[in-house]
Amino acid sequence: MKQVIFVGWIRTGKPPVDGETAKNQYIIAELKKYCKVTVLDFYQKNRHPWIYLQALWALVSQPKATIIFSTSAKNVYGTLKFFRALHLKREVIHWVIGGKFGDNIQNGVIDADVFGYAKYTFVESHAMVKQLQECGIKGVSQLPNFKAIPYFPDLNKALNERKQNSKKRFVFLSRVMPEKGCDYILEAIKALNEKGLRDRFCVDFYGKMDEAYEERFTQKVKQLDNANYHGLLDLKTAAGYDTLATYHAMLFPTYWKGEGFAGVFIDAFIAGLPMLISDWAHNSEIIRDGELGILYPVHDVKALADTMEKCILGEINLEEMAVNARQEALRYDVAKVLNDDYLRSIGLIET
To answer: 249 forms bridges with which residues in the sheet?
Structure first.
């Protein structure tokens, strides 16, 4: 059985708190079906500094193990630079987290030669593959985000309930912070309310609250009768996805600098939700405009409000996009993406 040393933010044994910890937990669970995996969890490493000794011992005691780095580039850079300087011959896989890596390599913020040490580099978008290849990094391939999908809500039931609801129900599901577009949503709600649409729609926010933003966000929500914050939505349960499926569409006017292939896209697909989403980063590669959702310009509150208004007035066929979204979800089941044929092709299953 192939030995693997897996390095990243994982939060072992606890629920994930962000996209990185969620993705890494899925990867590890899948790899353990085929490989002997040593997990080096650097989440909140200052609370358990002995992780560095564990890492050193793993590297020394498992000289033939494949090392998988699945964390941000800044966390990988120093280690790869060290390996390269010492001419260590280790098989390394770099599983890129986030959407800025390609830009940082292309703009010289980080050294392409250092990351060229990895045998394989996995990124979430075709655009980033092209960026990295143009910078001379070999072994780059596109591998989408994924989730374990043990449950799908009853879409026919959900669509019937959506039809019967007199209000269009929009949902935001991500970290509650300005860079995810929360202020833009609140401004759009206010604009639509002033046009006399207050009683025809509502917006519910779910997600971890950014502490620096909480007071401002809470004050703005209190001024809007049709906006509410509901804390965290537990998508580890069927009930969480059943709740998500009660909405008509998901709002995601993000402009966060680190945006990649957000896991929330897959959550929307599972629940059969069209996404009303900003044309930011790699979003247009994932959300096909008019088929899986509607794209609008970044930072354009009027475009967001206009798109929401068209949904409220029935000028956009949300039901057709809901069906498309559900079909799209099937592509991103972790067991399908990281199947044994694929893992064998990259040497993680011994032949």
So the answer is: 170
